[in-house]
């Protein structure tokens, strides 16, 4: 699972957080967990104080915001289907 891969969120907050992005370095690929950052639906957040800290992306026609303060480690088996990579997205909305 390369760094910056986007996966569907399979957890109970999947309506609010439809995707997560893997931020863990590939140096730790043998470990059975992945460090991920939630991608929260933009319309559910209020104003974004610092767009450089919380950039917005459009994934599968859904505007989402990177929410690094909610970083978490999850078992690989809980990652949903791969949907893309942030490294492929060259346009960042602000």
Automatic annotation (TrEMBL):
GO biological process, one term: plasmid maintenance
SUPFAM superfamilies, alphabetized: Cell growth inhibitor/plasmid maintenance toxic component (SSF50118)
Parts of the chain that traverse the membrane: none
Gene Ontology molecular function terms on file: DNA topoisomerase type II (double strand cut, ATP-hydrolyzing) inhibitor activity
Pfam families for this protein: CcdB
Keyword terms, alphabetized: Repressor, Transcription, Transcription regulation
Keyword Repressor: yes
Family: Belongs to the CcdB toxin family.
Listed name of the protein: Toxin CcdB
């Amino acid at each position: 699972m390369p760094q910056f891969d986007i996966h569907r969120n399979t957890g109970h907050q999947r309506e609010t957080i439809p995707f997560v992005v893997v931020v863990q370095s590939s140096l730790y690929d043998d470990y059975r967990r992945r460090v991920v950052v939630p991608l929260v639906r933009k319309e559910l957040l209020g104003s974004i104080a610092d767009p450089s800290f919380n950039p917005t992306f459009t994934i599968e026609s859904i505007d989402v915001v990177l929410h690094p303060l909610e970083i978490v480690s999850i078992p690989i088996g809980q990652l949903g289907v791969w949907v893309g990579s942030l490294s492929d997205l060259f346009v960042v909305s602000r």
